[in-house]
Design brief:
mainly alpha, 17 helices, globular, transmembrane, transmembrane helix, membrane
């Protein structure tokens, strides 16, 4: 009887194909980026025109950080896949099939058919203030970095910068960011008189998506486990692509002074985004401290926040992404002497 029922259970190839397609697209995006890096690295080696003696060291530094980023985030992401499957298998929907002799493919198809992995992960990391204290930071990093890759992508003539953003959202922000830093390290110095260096779009096209993304990020924990959660969550995911898609329509030359003026303008933008992100994090920290109560010491708060990293595999993945974003951004600032103009391609 069990065999007869088992033979009637569908495999759900469509659900399986979505997961396989997702993982395959990650590999394709990674190889597109690697191709750009390889071609530019070979060009620097052949011409021996590294801008400074340390640019080669920077390339290996950010390549190493990229490996650490994908290792720390996806170790826990794979653990999340297993956690999600086990949760489904022990639920009423999964227990129906527990006594049946089903293939691994069939069981995976059933799991994926009845599970919304993306939504499940983000609801888990937004469930309470302690978890969102970590996961909320990734919105700030993604929004600021989205503007940065739009600026640096134009200036360093990096093709298809949207690929880096897509990889960031499919894998981790820190992984894609370090690959982008490595790409810059093997790129030619930008021409400060070129239109791609001096051009900047109107505020409506560049800052409006940033502002909307920041506002939307605040709303994410409010709508967790509610009907409109996916819409609220996906809005900033789409808006972060906008700065990377903007670019000049002509190739006219400009003056170095114009380039320096544009660099200062962007430095102010990024500074305000950083200040806003810190202010938002400060606000969430105050709310969290109020939730803990006055009797909880600073050391206990730190310990609870650290414990929150490992309360759920999805929390672990996002939290380590935040940590690696912080580490990578620190090294990016360090190798440029903490000078914003150099971080943006200026001198």
């Amino acid at each position: 009887m069990a065999d007869l029922i088992s033979s009637e259970v569908p495999t759900h190839y469509r659900s399986l194909s979505i997961l396989v397609g997702y993982l395959s697209l990650i590999i394709v995006l990674f190889f597109i980026i690697c191709k750009t890096i390889y071609v530019r690295y070979q060009a620097r080696q052949k011409k021996n025109d590294w801008a400074t003696g340390q640019r080669r060291v920077q390339f290996f530094l950010f390549s190493l950080l990229a490996a650490l980023s994908v290792g720390t985030t996806w170790f826990h992401m794979i653990a999340f896949f297993f956690h999600s499957y086990n949760t489904w298998a022990s639920s009423s929907g999964g227990l129906v099939y527990s006594s049946m002799e089903l293939s691994v493919i069939t069981r995976m198809g059933l799991w994926l058919k009845n599970t919304y992995l993306f939504q499940e992960a983000w609801e888990a990391v937004s469930e309470n203030l302690g978890r969102f204290w970590w996961s909320g930071q990734i919105f700030g990093w993604t929004i600021g970095w989205g503007l940065f890759i739009g600026i640096a992508g134009r200036r360093y003539q990096i093709p298809h910068v949207w690929v880096y953003m897509l990889l960031a959202q499919f894998v981790s922000v820190s992984f894609a960011a370090n690959l982008f830093f490595a790409t810059i390290a093997v790129s030619e110095r930008p021409n400060e008189k070129d239109s791609s260096f001096t051009w900047s779009p109107s505020l409506v096209y560049e800052l409006l998506p940033v502002v909307l993304s920041l506002v939307d990020a605040v709303a994410v924990p409010i709508f967790a486990y509610q009907k409109d959660f996916m819409f609220i969550l996906l809005v900033p995911h789409f808006l972060t692509f906008v700065p990377g898609l903007l670019g000049p329509r002509d190739s006219s030359r400009a003056t170095k002074v114009q380039g320096e003026k544009t660099t200062r303008r962007y430095a102010v933008f990024l500074t305000w985004i950083a200040v806003t992100s810190v202010a938002m994090q400060g606000y969430f920290t105050v709310l969290l401290l109020q939730e803990f109560g006055p009797d909880v010491s600073f050391g206990e708060v730190v310990q609870q926040l650290w414990d929150t990293i490992y309360v759920h595999p999805a929390c672990s993945s996002v939290s380590w992404d935040v940590i690696m974003c912080t580490v990578s951004s620190f090294f990016w600032a360090l190798v440029h002497g903490f000078r914003t103009n150099q971080m943006l391609g200026g001198k």
